[in-house]
Specification:
Elements (H helix, E strand, L loop, with lengths): L6 E8 L3 H10 L8 E2 L5 E7 L4 E7 L9 H8 L2 E8 L3 H10 L8 E8 L2 E10 L10 E6 L2 H4 L11 E11 L2 H12 L4 E4 L2 E5 L4 E6 L3 H4 L12 E9 L2 H10 L5 E2 L5 E3 L8 E6 L1
Parallel strand pairs: 1-4, 5-8, 9-12, 13-16
Antiparallel strand pairs: 1-5, 2-3, 3-4, 6-7, 7-8, 9-13, 10-11, 11-12, 14-15, 15-16
């Protein structure tokens, strides 16, 4: 198996108002790191850190600067799960791997944001994949150059018991085209057929790909969103103790749905456009 692919790294959640979204996710029981401002870009974020994955609440604080599709996404889909970052230990290696599978990939891009505590410049190399080569599924690879700056013990303690981003769901129109495209991104050997469509099995986590019709098969009883496809829509968050998570949500008066396997579902209206399921770690 390809060692240049670590698996899920982080899910980017696009929001109109960063502080409002931070309050929503605080109520859901997540701890966030201080706001990070992206250098020479329109965007800023609040990150929600787990030991080896995370969530990124992404908004704009300098709209006059380049936003790399952020405003367009909000205008089409509204708030929600915008794109998936996959982890890689070395940006140059994943560039070579993707090119070997026939993808037209540019050189890694540097992304930086200053941080006050711990003090330093948080630095990434991102490897972007044009959406016309992924059947419209928005995904890329992220190589962390300063991982220690992003995680402190306090930042990884969450009142809801969250431990990891364990799975993500993309809804598409054309399963065959999506399977072919993601086979070039992840390697065909990682793709397994499934009743909902197919699953990409990664070293860290899973990528589920389904259609609007297949979505309720995967997320039992849930409705697929209206609007253009493809799009990311749902994610599963692994927690230490589902019973403790349920008690927390009840205490904070957060609406949730019990699922047949004991998991807990949060509606998109209560998670900034994301269908979120808390599952056993």
């Amino acid at each position: 198996m390809n060692q240049a692919i670590l698996g899920l790294d982080h899910a980017v959640i696009a929001v109109r108002d960063l502080d409002a979204a931070r309050a929503v996710y605080n109520k859901l029981g997540f701890t966030h790191v201080p706001m990070g401002n992206h250098q020479n870009r329109a965007t800023a974020n609040y990150c929600i850190m787990f030991p080896d994955t995370y969530l990124e609440l992404l908004g704009m604080n300098q709209p006059e600067l380049q936003d790399f599709g952020f405003k367009e996404f909000l205008s089409i889909y509204g708030e929600g799960f915008q794109r998936l970052a996959n982890g890689t230990p070395e940006a140059d290696d994943i560039v070579a791997e993707l090119r070997s599978r026939g993808l037209d990939i540019g050189e890694p891009l540097l992304l930086e944001r200053p941080q006050k505590e711990p003090e330093g410049m948080v630095t990434f190399n991102n490897v972007m994949i044009p959406k016309d080569q992924t059947a419209g599924i928005w995904t890329f690879f992220c190589c962390h150059r300063t991982p220690a700056l992003m995680r402190t013990p306090a930042w990884m303690k969450h009142a809801n018991g969250a431990k990891a981003l364990s799975a993500v769901t993309s809804i598409v129109e054309d399963i065959a085209a999506s399977r072919e495209a993601l086979g070039k991104v992840y390697g065909k050997e990682r793709i397994a057929e499934a009743p909902h469509g197919f699953t990409v099995n990664l070293p860290k986590g899973k990528v589920f790909v389904t259609t609007a019709k297949g979505f309720p098969t995967l997320h039992i009883g849930a409705e697929a969103p209206k609007g253009p496809l493809p799009r990311w829509y749902a994610m599963r968050i692994a927690v230490a103790d589902l019973g403790a998570t349920e008690q927390y949500l009840e205490a904070k008066h957060v609406p949730f749905e019990h699922l047949f396997d004991g998991s807990l579902r949060i509606a998109p209206a209560d998670a900034s456009g994301v269908l979120m399921e808390f599952v056993a770690h």
